[in-house]
């Protein structure tokens, strides 16, 4: 369980190596900027893999932007080849990104975010992870 907590905390640490002009750009990224941004999982892994005891956390951080169907990055992993912790972080991080204010967009509603995460079950996200995540919201209503 500690690996999930640590990997969630550090999942975007590689963005420390991305130029702030890209991170704070108010509009869409160019293809070149997107290519630089997409290196952050690998950079995060490199930052963490040399910390004693964090080798597995580094592997999870690298996999946080992989998609269940193999269309993610940086390695195109699919299904169970993606560590479970990374599959959990991916769904939760997407929800957070949708509901957060960013330099390039305002926040969307939690309801919209839940629908987007649910729509990605089976392609982008692990369906069991999505069911568990969305179940948290149902429990809050009870």
Question: What does the model show?
Answer:
With 142 residues, the chain is mostly helical. It has one domain: Hypothetical protein af1432. The chain has eight helices and no strands. Helix 1 crosses helix 6, helix 4 runs antiparallel to helix 5 and helix 6 runs antiparallel to helix 7. It is globular, with a radius of gyration of 15 Å. The two termini are 26 Å apart.
Write the layout of secondary structure elements.
Elements lengths: L1 H9 L9 H4 L7 H7 L2 H9 L6 H9 L20 H16 L10 H10 L7 H15 L1
Query: Can you tell me the CATH superfamily?
Result: Hypothetical protein af1432
Give the termini separation: 26 Å
Give me the secondary-structure category: mainly alpha
- Rg is 15 Å
Number of helices: 8
What proportion of the residues form beta strands (DSSP E)?
under 5%
Helix content estimate? 55-70%
Question: Please, what is the average pLDDT?
Answer: 94
Major sheet attributes: none
Structure summary:
Helix content is 56%, strand content 0%.
Give short descriptive properties of this protein.
142 residues, globular, mainly alpha
